[in-house]
Design goal:
12 helices, single chain, 5-stranded antiparallel beta sheet, alpha+beta, binds ligand EPS, 4-stranded antiparallel beta sheet, Chorismate synthase, AroC fold, 17 strands
Length: 386
């Protein structure tokens, strides 16, 4: 079983992830993990915090001489901003009473969080609910990406909408498009839409507002049969939806043609099956987004994800003071204006982790050698059936 946990507050000393279940013998490059962390920090619309931080992992355990040991991997990402918050976020009692946050932001975890935890200071909630936590998820996902890479499974995420600007690029992004996506400040392949998106982000900034959008993630190279139809909680589309919806501000997810399928006849909605001696079974369309019956079907996995606008606003919305119960304006915390490009990177990470978990579940193996042997045996079994 491959799993991970994260800990850490946004303005605390740092973020931590513990990853358990990585097979032994996986080559780990710290520079690759740091590159993934840096991708998450980029993008037009990111807030002032990203100028302070330069996220990097310190590896605490589980790796020796550049390879996993098979024991839990622990990583630490220090918050550079901590030095400015050591009083406000002090672990020990402090002499001077710190200012409390009492104006919860509509759309954030603030109100439900204080009610649930019986807190009197919204900061006790927002520090953990902050999307800063996703840095630890991206670090964890980077380990999963390294494992997938060994099996030639590749992932690419790109932005298709910010605010009202939609990319006209209809082709599915390929692995060869990655450098072009990386070069775009909004991770968009359509240059015209990119210009419009940047203008819209500029306009939202002047209006002290925020923006959401839609991004798409495609996974190439998954064999058929990851996940399972036998029990509801083994379905891979369900597991993927859960991890994607767990990214802060995500409000919708669809696979393949998703919502559009609901208005088609069955005869138009499915991907007919063909057979060729060299390719084996194949499809001419991929409306299912690579998932049928809760399992991969061998076609690329295609996921589209809707992100709401960031709820922290320079022009705050109405709220209620939690102490006086009087009308008030929501707290103005420093935040991003648009984090859709960053969310695409985070989604790549959580999807990679879930697919790697499905691989470890199906092929087992305590070492990479054992896992790849089992994996190749399965690919051969499918090929021999031809
Ligand atoms: C984030 C760090 C946070 C926010 C942002 C994401 O840092 P700070 O609160 O110090 O500015 O910029 O979080 C949110 C937008 C949010 O709503 O929680 C990060 O590292 O991604």
């Amino acid at each position: 079983m491959l799993r991970y946990l994260t800990a850490g507050e946004s303005h605390g000393p740092g973020l931590v992830a513990i990853i358990e279940g990585l097979p032994a013998g996986l080559t780990v490059s710290r520079s690759f993990i740091n590159k993934e962390l840096s991708r998450r920090q980029k993008g037009a619309g990111r807030g002032g915090r990203m100028k302070i931080e330069k996220d990097e992992v310190e590896i605490i355990s589980g790796i020796r001489f550049g390879k996993t040991l098979g024991s839990p991997v622990a990583v630490l990402i220090r918050n550079k901003d901590w030095e400015n918050w050591s009083e406000v976020m002090s672990v020990e009692e402090v002499k001077e009473k710190q200012k409390m946050v009492t104006h919860p932001r509509p759309g954030h975890a603030d109100l439900a969080g204080i009610l649930k935890m019986n807190h009197d200071d919204v900061r006790n909630v927002l520090e953990r609910a902050s999307a800063r936590e996703t840095a630890a998820r991206v670090a964890s996902g980077a380990f999963a990406k390294l494992l997938l890479c060994e099996l030639n499974i590749r992932i690419v995420g790109h932005v298709i909408k910010i605010g009202s600007c939609v990319s006209e690029c209809k082709k599915l992004p390929q692995i060869d498009d990655v450098s072009e996506i990386e070069a775009s400040p909004v991770r968009c392949l359509d240059k015209k839409a990119e210009t419009e998106m940047l203008k819209e982000i500029e306009a939202a900034s002047s209006a002290k507002d925020s923006l959401g959008g839609v991004f798409e993630v495609v996974v190439y190279g998954c064999p058929p049969g990851l996940g399972s139809y036998v029990s509801w909680d083994r379905r891979l589309d369900g597991k993927l939806s859960r991890v994607i919806m767990s990214i802060p501000a995500i409000k919708g997810v669809e696979f393949g043609n998703g919502f559009e399928l609901s208005s088609l006849f069955g005869s138009q909605a499915h991907d007919e099956i063909f057979y060729d001696n060299s390719r084996g079974f194949y499809r001419k369309t991929n409306r299912a987004g690579g998932l049928e019956g809760g399992m991969t079907n061998g076609e690329p996995i295609i996921v589209r994800v809707a992100m709401k606008p960031i709820p922290t606003l320079g022009k705050p919305l109405k709220t209620v003071d939690i102490v006086t119960k009087e009308p008030a304006l929501a707290v103005k915390e420093r935040a991003d204006l648009c984090a859709v490009p960053a969310a695409a990177v985070i989604a790549e990470a959580v999807i990679s982790f879930e697919i790697a978990a499905a691989i470890v579940e199906k092929f087992g193996g305590d070492s990479v050698l054992e896992l790849t042997r089992n994996y190749e045996g399965y690919l051969k079994q499918i090929a021999d059936g031809r």
